[in-house]
Design goal:
alpha/beta, Nucleotidyltransferase, domain 5, 6-stranded mixed sheet, 5-stranded mixed sheet, 9 helices, 14 strands, about 35% helix
Length: about 300
């Protein structure tokens, strides 16, 4: 039997990941499901959570600290955005979700917002907070954080605060183009291990980084090359990735140029962005997204009457 001191929940649009944490901060158990925010109505969140964590609940009350889309307007309960500049997380801003099971208290971390240009993030602020905690001090983590994903985030952090940030829909555009556009006909599921994929990626990256206004035209050239010269599907995928990440780097240049950059993301995505940044003379530090999420949620854990 596992009796969690508290539970960490990373609750996104597509998935729910939970960890049972002991009194000493050790991870006692982990579980996950595909019951993300996008699949649930407001009254479905508590049952979805209990399906994973019920074996970890003792006779008392176990607090759950959650981050991500669970706090969106369409989520369990809305945790309103905090406006930058501000610290990535603030325990005083936690929003408590309504529960029927008296063995639980659920606290949700708000995301961050920016007025001009308009932007929002939900979940990434927890990863940034975790990175700062792992750095060991509010000034030790100063610099730029890149969080690649469906909607990549670039955040400028100074003195422990997120000063500004920018979102780029690179991941979503890649998925749409590779799975639903005309490009899908000549696209492989992966380019890993394909001969020439790295070179194709970097060539495409350079094209849109230097001339981002040509992106739409260069995208169609992938299809044309497939028809006329038999461009290999794996190389087509590498070119698509390079074109889109190149356009992202062009848009985010004020963030990464001349700045220390930290990548927080999955291994595959972080490797692609590290390769792209290295081609521009930037050597980023890479952190594990799961470790940063847990470290961020741990900063919210405070003794409280239950």
């Amino acid at each position: 039997m596992i009796a969690a001191d508290w539970i960490a929940a990373d609750w996104g649009t597509s998935n729910l990941r939970v960890r049972a944490i002991g009194a000493d901060g050790a991870v006692l158990a982990e579980a996950a499901s595909d019951e993300g925010m996008g699949r649930l109505s407001p009254d479905g969140f508590e049952p979805a959570l209990l399906r994973l964590v019920d074996p970890w609940l003792g006779p008392g009350v176990t607090p759950v600290y959650a981050a991500g889309m669970v706090g969106a307007r369409q989520g369990w309960i809305e945790a309103r955005y905090r406006a930058v500049p501000c610290t990535p997380l603030d325990p005083a801003a936690l929003v408590e979700a309504p529960v029927r099971d008296k063995r639980l208290r659920v606290f949700i971390a708000p995301g961050l917002s920016q007025a001009k240009p308009a932007d929002v993030m939900r979940g990434e602020e927890t990863q940034i907070a975790g990175a700062l905690a792992l750095a060991g001090g509010k000034d030790a983590g100063d610099g730029v954080y890149c969080l690649p994903g469906t909607h990549s985030k670039w955040a400028h952090v100074s003195a422990g605060e997120v000063v500004s940030f920018q979102s780029v829909m690179t991941g979503e555009i890649f998925a749409l183009l590779s799975q639903q556009s005309v490009l899908r006909h000549g696209m492989a599921e992966t380019d890993e291990g394909a001969e020439g994929a790295g070179e194709a990626f970097l060539d495409a990256l350079s094209e849109t980084l230097s001339r981002p206004e040509r992106l739409a035209a260069r995208l169609f050239s992938i299809r044309a090359e497939g028809l006329l010269t038999g461009l290999a599907p794996a190389l087509a995928r590498a070119r698509l990735s390079g074109l889109l990440i190149g356009a992202e780097l062009a848009a985010a240049k004020p963030y990464w140029l001349g700045q220390p950059v930290t990548l927080i993301g999955s291994a595959g995505l972080s490797a692609a962005y590290a390769r792209a940044l290295a081609a521009q003379g930037v050597t980023p530090r890479t952190l594990d997204v799961a470790a940063c999420t847990l470290a961020g949620l741990s900063t919210l854990r405070r003794p409280r009457p239950l």
